[in-house]
Amino acid sequence: MRKKYLMTPGPTPVPSEVLLAQARPMIHHRTPDFEQVVRECVEGLKYVFQTEQSDVLLFACSGTGAMESAVVNCFCAGDKVVVGYNGKFGQRMEQISKTYGLEVTKLEYGWQKVVDPADIAAYLAANPDARGVIVTQSETSSGVLNDVEAIARVVKDYPDCVLIVDSITGIGAVDVQTDAWGLDVVMTGSQKGLMLPPGLAAVSVSPKAWRACERSTLPKFYFDWKKHAKSLEKDTTPFTPAVSLMIGLAESLRLMREEGIENIIARHARLAEATRQGCEALGLELFAPAEGRGNAVTPVWVPEGLDGKKLVSIMKNRHGVTVAGGQDDYAGRIFRVGHLGYFGDFDIITTLAALEMTLVELGYDFEPGSGIKAAEKALIG
Ligand SMILES: Cc1ncc(COP(=O)(O)O)c(C=O)c1O
To answer: What global pTM score does this model have?
Structure first.
């Protein structure tokens, strides 16, 4: 037997309290018992999204479903939108928008640069009739953190333009002040900072986004926000919900409230910093730019001459530690350590120990123990 450690940016580990809650006997969804679960989920989600003004809707789907729901509910075919991106998931928003016939302008930054709010400002100045700005807050493929607060300041001046934020690996890892910053649509998925298995997605909808929804003519059925909001008024869902996942969500949200959102974000910042310091002490180079490194995932360049796929495979198969490889052009060239959700200090230490043992096996020249030492120092503070 080998003990396993899941260090990927989704799915992420699930606390035992949540696993046990999900294992309860099935209940029917048209009952007062389940209405209570719905209430707890919505109230808890509003807490972690830091919103009182927005509605938060829940769907039985993966994060991509939430992304598609944002496009079909906010726009009409032919609407102008700008998508700013620096990784695979931002590009997905461009693809979804094009699929539904929007007039898409892309601001593509490569995978190692942050989205520049000045570029969004320039786009909107030249296109004051634009209906949407779409950005990924925490780009999981590249580890880049975009400054959605600054982007929101730009979009605020355009009353008919909504800001849509993919915070699928942001919520529960970095600060997301939906109301205070003026984010119109924020999306997350259950298998990330919410510490659940995959299968649920949540979307917040601001009053401005509801106005966009009123004029939207794109086709929708399952993802029709209005249907979901109407059901939520009665603490229910329009279709059969993912009952067990929602019972688990009510429990994970209870744990999150107990820890407090500020403390959760601070814990993630600490773990991310320790991971970065540990890797750098090993002589490894961080992938994301210094001005935009998120708390959810740390991508690291594989040292010259080493096989990145082998590195990931040895960590998993020999040491039981699963980290993620690189995606698209960066497959085999970077590896990504996830630390979002149910993670603590010793997950980072364990991962760095496994990384060091793997690097020894691959013949990389470094001082064993130096990564752990640096991480420990960062954690002690
Ligand atoms: C930032 C981001 N956006 C979107 C997605 C897509 O979510 P899903 O795979 O749950 O459909 C992911 C998944 O990893 C993600 O990290």
So the answer is: 0.98
